[in-house]
Amino acid sequence: MLEPVVRSAPRIPQRLLDAIPRLDDGGRPIADVIRKVGEEADRLGITRPSYERIRQLVHQSRSIHLGPSDVRIALETTALLRSRDSAARAMAKPRDRRR
Questions:
Q1: Quick one: 97 and 59 in the same domain?
Q2: Are 40 and 13 in contact (CB under 8 A)?
Q3: What domain range includes position 18?
Q4: What's residue 9's pLDDT?
């Protein structure tokens, strides 16, 4: 008896990639975002990406939308791209409010 073939998307269309930051407010559980991305794929008539791949993409999207890390601020200060006062002010803020 043959096992059923599970469909999975080898490549994720740009339309679905663009939907991830739109569907994720950064505060909801990743599982909710994964469900919403799957619903969006169904709506667009696209094969749903795997749970794991969407989870990876949500993490990437969230890291892009965060402000710079302490390490990046320190590197910018060392490279004279940022003053020490600017660095101190930035590091005093929560990461999501940094610029």
A1: no
A2: no
A3: 14-65
A4: 52
Q: What is the largest CA-CA distance in the chain?
A: 69
Indicate whether this model's pTM tops 0.90: no
Nearest alpha carbon to residue 61 among 85, 81, 34: 34
Assess contact for 40 and 19: CB atoms under 8 A. Answer: yes
- pLDDT (tens digit, 9 = 90+) per residue, 31-72? 999 999 999 999 999 889 999 989 998 888 887 766 666 667
Average pLDDT, the chain: 80
Indicate whether 42 belongs to any domain.
Answer: yes
Domain presence at residue 2: no
One DSSP character per residue, the chain reads: -PPPPPP--SS--HHHHHHHHHH--SSS-HHHHHHHHHHHHHHHT-PPPPHHHHHHHHHHHHHHHS---HHHHHHHHHTTSS-HHHHHHHHHS-GGG--
Would 1 be classed as within a structural domain? no
